[in-house]
Write a structure and sequence with these properties.
- By secondary structure, this protein is an all-alpha fold.
- The chain has one domain.
- 73% of the residues lie in helices and 3% in strands.
- The chain contains five helices and two strands.
- Strands 1-2 form a two-stranded antiparallel ribbon.
- The longest helix has 32 residues.
- It is elongated and about 55 Å long.
């Protein structure tokens, strides 16, 4: 006899596949952030000095940490959406601060710790959290 998979079982396997994919994307994202913080970068590439009047490296820091709470919350969502979001907000702040403080000693002075980088990181993390709060509200009222 041929058994037809139940809808609930199919939805569960789809959810597991989505969660696995989101976890892999989050891990790849963390590897990219690590490379951007500690890597040399390509030689001979001239980057712009500013973007809309904001120093370009600060824009990079902002954009680099904006996805952290978004990707983390989707990849590791728990029973309580907002508790998971707060967890990834705190985790993003810890990672941001740690990477910034470790840049100078681990790169032999090629990169230096800059308080403005921390502010740009915090701004990106905060906007990512605000985006996820909006997602949570949309889900709630759907």
């Amino acid at each position: 006899m041929i058994s037809i998979p139940s809808v609930a079982k199919t939805e569960r396997s789809d959810d597991m596949r989505n969660r696995f994919t989101q976890t892999v994307v989050f891990i790849l994202y963390l590897a990219l952030v690590g490379y951007l913080c500690f890597g040399n970068g390509p030689d001979g590439v001239e980057l712009p000095k500013a973007l809309f009047g904001i120093p370009f490296d600060k824009c990079v820091h902002f954009c680099m940490f904006l996805p952290f709470p978004v990707l983390g919350t989707f990849a590791f969502r728990g029973r309580n959406f907002y508790r998971t979001l707060v967890l990834f907000f705190v985790l993003a702040l810890i990672v941001s601060f740690s990477m910034e403080m470790l840049q100078t000693p681990l790169t032999d002075g090629r990169r230096v710790t800059d308080p403005w980088d921390l502010i740009a990181n915090f701004a990106g993390i905060t906007l990512g959290v605000l985006v996820m709060i909006g997602v949570g509200l949309c889900r709630k009222f759907r």
